[in-house]
């Protein structure tokens, strides 16, 4: 489709055409980025340039990192007010035979299975 001659258009029509062209460019860029995100390499970490700048969808789960204390660097350090407890040994699992050892055995009456 050809662009109409701007000399014959009103200023409102020119402004509307410019608006539509800008809108089309933005939607096309968003479409390319979403295609790249959908069909591109798979990773849980996504680049921030995939979504528009005004979209804060990727920053939802960053609240914990933002609120974390910057001074705490080593999370494996043992606090001073902890008590060390000796570990215990787990009991050996018993076999099926050992579990069924003390149970009484009843045999089913099979006389009703015989044909008369």
Based on Cα principal axes, name the global outline: elongated
Beta-strand residue fraction: under 5%
The separation of the N and C termini measures: 94 Å
| Percent helix range | 25-40%
Largest sheet: none
Oligomerization category of the chains in this entry: single chain
The number of distinct β-strands equals: 0
Helical element count?
Answer: 3
List the secondary-structure elements in sequence, H or E. Answer: HHH
Average pLDDT over all residues: 76
Structural class: mainly alpha
Q: Unreliable stretches, pLDDT < 50, 5 or more residues?
A: none
Radius of gyration: 37 Å
What topology does this entry show?
Layout: H1 11-39, H2 63-67, H3 96-100
Concise summary:
With 116 residues, the protein is mostly helical. It has helices at 11-39, 63-67, 96-100.
Describe, in plain words, how this protein is organized in 3D.
The chain has 116 residues and is mainly alpha-helical. The chain contains 3 helices and no strands. The protein is elongated and about 105 Å long. The relative contact order is 0.04.
């Amino acid at each position: 489709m050809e662009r109409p001659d701007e000399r014959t258009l009103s200023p409102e029509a020119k402004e509307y055409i410019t608006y539509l062209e800008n809108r089309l460019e933005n939607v096309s860029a968003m479409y390319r980025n979403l295609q790249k995100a959908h069909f591109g390499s798979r990773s849980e970490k996504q680049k921030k340039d995939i979504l528009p700048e005004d979209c804060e969808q990727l920053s939802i789960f960053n609240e914990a990192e933002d609120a974390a204390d910057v001074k705490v660097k080593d999370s494996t350090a043992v606090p001073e007010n902890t008590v060390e407890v000796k570990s215990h040994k787990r009991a050996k699992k018993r076999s099926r035979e050992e579990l069924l050892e003390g149970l009484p055995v009843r045999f089913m009456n099979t006389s009703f299975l015989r044909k008369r």
